[in-house]
Specification:
This protein has helices at residues 2-12, 29-37, 53-66, 79-87, 101-111, 134-140, 154-157, 160-165, 176-182, 192-207, 219-224, 235-253, and strands spanning 17-22, 41-45, 70-73, 92-95, 146-151, 172-174, 212-215, 229-231. The protein is of the alpha/beta class. It has one domain: TIM Barrel, CATH 3.20.20.
């Protein structure tokens, strides 16, 4: 599973690593768009989106054929949902609201074949391996599979070190919006309370040798703050921001422009 291997190596080396989390607008061409834009990975969300298994499997297959890492955020972290998600063919998971290392034991059962786990493989996920024997599964799939457990609650903050040290964890991820709500500062990304929590999570992850994945629309500020494994947002957020910037430029270029929006009458 070379795309996952390359991504893991880049993250481990401490290089700036950037990607998107697709929620509202998911389609196979997003893989090529991400590649052309110079991103390092794409995550397809199944927790909040209405994307079905067929579409997600096609996006994952597009990534596999192109050699580009496509991860999935499953609808939930129960064994059955995780098994289905891995069969769709991603090269890793972003996992919402992981609160303990015990939660990751279920993940291990879903992604590893016996005796390490309980997975019964099928679907597009089988395309990653050259043969269906145990050695091929371990060396061509399981050892490279990416797992990013998200810290989103006060309970999870108490167990960051154990979550980070779990054998399946690639990097510790943060869900800053949900965490801000949990901390009583919902949506205030500049709150000292939230910032203190974010830095504490990052320090705990680093203490067990793991980097931290972070998402935010102000990726430049995150990079300035020292975050290196970044999600720069959701594609529609990026599109809205780009359109606003373009409109601002166009309005500013008009002679005598007031900056107010208008309509083209034809």
């Amino acid at each position: 599973m070379n795309p996952a291997r390359v991504l893991k190596e880049k993250v481990a080396s401490g290089q700036l690593t950037t990607g998107l989390l697709a929620i509202d607008h998911i389609w196979p061409d997003l893989v090529e768009i991400s590649m052309r834009a110079g991103l390092d990975y794409l995550i397809v969300d199944m927790e909040h989106s209405c994307a079905g298994p067929d579409l997600v499997a096609e996006v994952c297959a597009t990534g596999r054929r192109a050699g580009f890492p496509v991860l999935v955020r499953p609808r939930s972290n129960d064994y059955a949902k995780l098994r289905l998600a891995v069969d769709l063919g991603p090269c890793g998971f972003l996992l919402a609201c992981v609160e303990s290392a015990t939660d990751l034991d279920t993940v291990r059962e879903a992604i590893y074949l016996p005796p390490r786990g309980k997975r019964r493989p099928g679907g597009m996920g089988n395309r990653w391996v050259s043969e269906l024997d145990a050695t091929s599964w371990r060396t061509e799939f399981e050892d490279d599979f990416i797992v990013l457990p998200q810290i989103e609650t006060k309970a999870a903050m108490k167990h960051v070190k154990a979550i980070g040290a779990h054998e399946v964890t690639t990097a510790v991820a943060i869900g800053p919006y949900d965490l801000s709500a949990e901390l009583g500062v919902c949506g205030d990304m500049d709150s000292p309370v939230l910032r203190e929590a974010l830095h504490a999570i990052r320090a705990d992850a680093l203490s067990v040798g793991k980097t931290t994945w972070m998402i935010g629309s102000n990726a430049a500020q995150l990079a300035s703050d020292g975050w290196k494994f970044l999600c720069i947002g959701e594609p529609t957020w990026v599109l809205i921001s780009a359109i606003k910037d373009k409109l601002t430029q166009v309005r500013a270029a008009m002679p005598g422009a007031s900056g107010k929006s208008g309509h083209y009458a034809g």
